[in-house]
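**User:** Here is a favour to ask of a fellow structure person. Please take any protein you like and set down a full record of it. No explanation is needed for now; the record alone will do.

**Assistant:**
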Amino acid sequence: MLAGKRLLITGVVTRGSIAFEVARQAQLAGAEVVLTGFGRGRRLTERAAARLPAPVEVLELDVNEPDHLAAIAETLAARWSSLDGLLHAIAFAPADALGGDFLSTPMASAQTAFTTSAFSLKALSAALLPLLEAADTGASVVALDFDATVAWPAYDWMGVAKAALESVARYLARDLGSRDIRVNLIAAGPIQTLAASGIAGFEQLADAWQAAAPLGWDVRDPGPVASTACFLLSALSRGITGEIVHVDGGYHAIGAPTR
């Protein structure tokens, strides 16, 4: 499905990361993959990368640093003539922007959540635009989302940032479509990742999901989300853009638990 495709995948921290599973499945489907890491966390990315089916390079990227964006575009241009796909799996909110004290979050923390989790989709896409435009059969930008149509316990300003991410994706789809670049989001159900472990109330949310999702939901299995990401990164999705694909066991469609 991804034979010959060249992909940049952000957000791999551990083997439990959704992004790791996307990279793994993409390699098995024939893609050539490059990862990014950041600061001290880059060592964790490199450790996880060693467990992928094929060796990968890990590039330094702080998505909030213009110099990093320029450097990664230059590095990839020297390596590849084009970029077929990009996975944006980047999100961060300071501790005081999460946890249930929404009213007390300072402006600076809310801004950090927005800049890192939403604006970064535009920043990274724009930095890599020349490479994405050069893809022979159209390029695909995919970002990981968490349904922002409702308010969630403890999610607070990250929820607001995800709502912004959804809007950013729609505007990118509008502006990049004429360049044959698709932009789509995956609204994933809760997955037990390193990032999720830092969100107060995650266990209760996961329990509710498992009880209400018609197909059931395994918080330890990022495979279904990754498979959908690979589909969206492939030419099979060539008619889809500006979409939010729910991969959540059907939870989003149910008003109350049925079992």
